Amino acid sequence: MTLREIGLLLASVLTAVAGQLLLKTGALKLGKVNAENVVSHILSILLIPELVFGLMLYGLSSVMYILLLTRVNLSVVGPAVAIGYIFSVLAGYFIFREAIPPSRLLGLGFIVCGVILVVWKQ
Description:
This protein is an all-alpha fold. Helices cover 78% and strands 0% of the residues.
């Protein structure tokens, strides 16, 4: 992958992670879903700005991903987007105060190693 392609990959991944953060924030406002409130919750999705903007960011991320697929093999880009997991875990930790157990840190280390091996040109 060229530097431009890596930049597009990072932009796509970071936009998706930003969308996830907004979706989580909106979901917290929405509250827990159960059988009695599922219909009203689905309708409320359109009224909570964080959910709407989160979905828009996911759409933008998808457009960037499609542009990336015109330049790079799916067998490289598909696994490479796994770096989004790292950003999601870090965002969960710093923004939502979610714990990161040692086993998750180990898993993230494996993801980093895997992504490096996938995108590395021989």
